[in-house]
Amino acid sequence: MSSSEFGALADFKNYLGKAFDEFSISVLKQGPVPKHIGFIMDGNRRFAKARNMAPKEGHFAGFISLKNILEWCLKLGVQAVSVYAFSIDNFNRPKDEVEALMELTKQKVCELSENIDFIENHQLRIRVVGRLELLPTDVKEMMHQVNKKTENNKGPVLNICIPYLSTDEISTAVSKIALKLSKKEIKKNELNEQLIESTLASIADCPSLDLLVRTSGETRLSNFMLWQASRGALIKFTNVNWPEFSFSTLLGIVLDYQLTKLGFV
């Protein structure tokens, strides 16, 4: 087979793959679609180790996967996507890995926010959620700029949780409520679960969490969106490492969600 024939065959396979993806999305949209999906993006280092790659190369592959999955979710009609990009506890990892990940995060989040056509087409709001004051100064400043750049968009939301812990998010929300109470901005009889939930940064102006997915085979939530997950979200664990998370993986998970919502599971 000549190089031109091989190229034509590759193009045809890509066309068929995209056509299948579009058809599958149109079918899924006939059923209940989760309004808010959370992803615990686990397995970047496992992916790298299995291929004798440096950890930062695994994280780079993970960011490529994030962009693909975000596009699929938006085409499906998902209104909010929340991703666990970096735990506060991850600062305990080796210094060189943390520094490489911080630089890569700054670069890739900046690239995403500067993809004007993609942002404008979807009216995407990018929100960096977490203890930003713990980030290196240059990364922190970039995250504040990203938050500002898309804050007036009216479309779907991408919550990038970095550095984040659910228990920290809950305690921060409770502290804000206590401050309002001390200033008499709210009354004691207004204190309830709904107030706490509405004060959580990751779901402010977002639908409630419907589906939470963790990759890499781990079956724990690692302190991610614990309050939100306890409010009736379907939790799915998959053995696939995050950089290998494909459209077919998402397809199967969303189909399980639909079968559950319709009472078949």
Protein architecture, described:
By secondary structure, this protein is of the alpha/beta class. It has 2 domains: 1-30; 33-164 and 202-262, Decaprenyl diphosphate synthase-like (Undecaprenyl pyrophosphate synthetase), CATH 3.40.1180.10. The protein has helices spanning 3-28, 44-50, 55-76, 95-113, 116-122, 137-149, 166-182, 193-199, 226-229, 247-261; strands at 36-40, 80-84, 125-129, 157-161, 211-214, 234-237. It is globular and about 75 Å long. The N and C termini lie far apart (48 Å).
List keywords for this structure.
52% helix; single chain; globular; 265 residues; 2 domains; 6-stranded parallel beta sheet; alpha/beta; Undecaprenyl pyrophosphate synthetase; 10 helices
